[in-house]
Design brief:
Elements: H1 2-22, E1 46-47, E2 51-54, E3 57-61, E4 78-82, E5 85-88, H2 94-117, H3 147-154, H4 186-193, E6 215-221, H5 223-229, E7 237-243, H6 250-253, H7 261-266, H8 283-303, E8 314-315, H9 319-326, E9 393-399, H10 403-407, H11 416-419, E10 424-428, E11 445-448, E12 456-457, E13 461-463, E14 472-473
Parallel strand pairs: 1-14, 9-12
Antiparallel strand pairs: 2-5, 3-4, 5-13, 6-7, 8-13, 9-10, 10-11
Length: 476
């Protein structure tokens, strides 16, 4: 009997020790040894859908071929090193950008409906039969706020000034209706119609969303300034509120004496152009898209029962990262395919550009397009990237100035404390309206960050931690 009792006691001690090593209670360590908690497996980065991995390395940054302009902004070759990263294999398309604006539109609509619903009266699992079904999740019958949500509400929000409040969580399961015949009640109609242009501003009485009201709100930290001042606090948070709908008038504004009205009317929203690169997007709008992409990935990871590592943020590439990726692993590559020619051995063009003076479409069989082309229509480079030359130029994170090459580091060069202050931003790659010389991997150009053009788009990147193992593909 004593032996059985001793065995039971020793078993309980073993179980207790085992639990203490995995939970947060008890002393640290295991059997008096310094043993970190968690899996000993190496971290494996998930490759985001539609991206390719770019291995880190060094290269000669700048014009590798003849520089006809001989200006310091375009030709200051120097050897630099960049770390590994994932990069979109194509420019962001109209279809992808529409996901962004539609999600922001829906979020604003749900917020307005939730405020109008008040205490609601709707039930969990409601199908949108009344405006009450759109009340905040914590306000619905049978659903109580968590202790943390109750605390935030008592403090007036996380910021203490009526700001972010986790108790105001939207219920995304309730379907939205934008079709007037499917509006559930009059109050719902009143709220939804406030998002549309008033009748006096409509053309041909067309009922369309007032896209100037569809703004994406986010904030980011000016880390460089905070570190410099040795004061890492909320004082260095930059709050942004960006109207995100692309400027479709660029097709008319960019060309005074040309008939481009069909593109103005159709390019962004028509399904015929869904796989074409989005244009008419400013630098700030491109950065807002990056934040949105980071948010939806983070929200997904947080929704999993088995939590994943916090997602690395998506961002615009620096000028050095863009040029390194464009060269496709070819040392001193004049063009993404190497060079120096713009046609292959069959006489087909290797990018979408203007081949001759006044000739935007010399021969369709050779791969010319009058304007932009669908993505993936031209050969990819050595890293698997499409359209790193031609089609549309691309925004980078980097400012454009004489000092960009001179004063930036040779290791991951980036003037981060200048990026948002400088009005001029570097764009790379050349576009459908440019001659072949402007497609060279080392050629630099610029545009004002608040400008939108019919020939400028963007693609995003995501850092790969230096200690990560082999990445794995993320399925669609």
């Amino acid at each position: 009997m004593k032996r059985i009792l001793l065995i039971l006691l020793s078993t309980s001690v073993i179980v207790s020790c085992s639990k203490g090593s995995k939970g947060s209670a008890g002393k640290p360590g295991l059997k008096g040894e310094l043993v970190p908690r968690g899996s000993s497996k190496s971290f494996i980065a998930d490759r985001p859908y539609g991206m390719v991995s770019i291995p880190g390395g060094s290269f000669v940054m700048g014009m590798a071929d003849q520089d006809f302009s001989a200006t310091p902004e375009k030709a200051m070759p120097k050897t630099v090193t960049v770390s590994s990263f994932f990069m979109d294999e194509t420019e962001i398309t109209n279809a992808e950008y529409r996901v962004f604006i539609n999600a922001v539109r829906d979020s604003i609509a749900r917020g307005l409906l939730a405020e109008a619903a008040g205490e609601g009266g709707g039930e969990e699992g409601g199908n949108g039969g009344s405006i009450g079904d759109f009340a905040y999740a914590s306000k619905k019958t049978g659903e109580e706020a968590t202790p943390y949500q109750s605390y935030l509400e008592s403090q007036g929000g996380r910021d203490g000034d009526g700001g972010y409040d986790e108790s105001k969580k939207l219920d995304w399961k309730v379907p939205l209706q934008y079709n007037t015949s499917a509006y559930p009640d009059e109050k719902y109609a009143e709220v939804l119609e406030s998002m549309y242009l008033p009748k006096e501003k409509r053309i041909n009485n067309e009922r369309i969303i007032d896209w100037s009201k569809i703004k994406y709100n986010y904030q980011w930290e000016d880390v460089m300034s905070a570190v410099k001042d040795k004061d890492r606090s909320a004082n260095y948070l930059k709050k942004e509120s960006i109207a995100i709908y692309p400027d479709t008038t660029v097709w008319v504004k960019d060309f005074n004496y040309a008939y481009n009205e069909p593109l103005f009317d159709q390019y962004f929203w028509h399904n015929a152009y869904k796989e074409y690169p989005v244009v008419g997007v400013t630098w700030d709008q491109a950065r807002a898209f990056c934040d949105f992409r980071t948010k939806i990935k983070t929200d997904y990871n947080n929704s999993l029962k088995k939590k994943k590592q916090k997602a690395m943020r998506f961002r615009l590439p620096t000028e050095a990262e863009w040029e390194y990726a464009a060269k496709g692993g070819i040392e001193n590559a004049t063009y993404p395919w190497g060079g120096p020619y713009l046609q292959d051995d069959r006489g087909c063009y290797l990018a979408n550009f203007k081949p001759k003076r006044g000739s935007y479409i010399e021969d369709e069989k050779k791969g010319n397009y009058t304007y932009t082309a669908p993505v993936r229509k031209f050969p990819k480079n050595g890293y698997g990237l499409f359209d790193m030359a031609g089609n549309v130029s691309e925004w980078t994170e980097s400012p454009y100035s004489n000092s960009t090459y001179e004063f930036s580091s040779t290791l991951n060069p980036y003037l981060s404390n200048q990026a948002y202050r400088e009005v001029k931003k570097t764009v790379r790659g050349g576009s459908w309206k440019d001659v072949g010389y402007l497609l060279m991997t080392g050629y630099r150009d610029w545009e004002r960050k608040d400008s939108a053009r019919s020939y400028i788009g963007f693609r995003t990147i995501q850092d790969i931690p230096s200690g990560a193992g082999k990445f794995k593909r993320t399925t669609k």
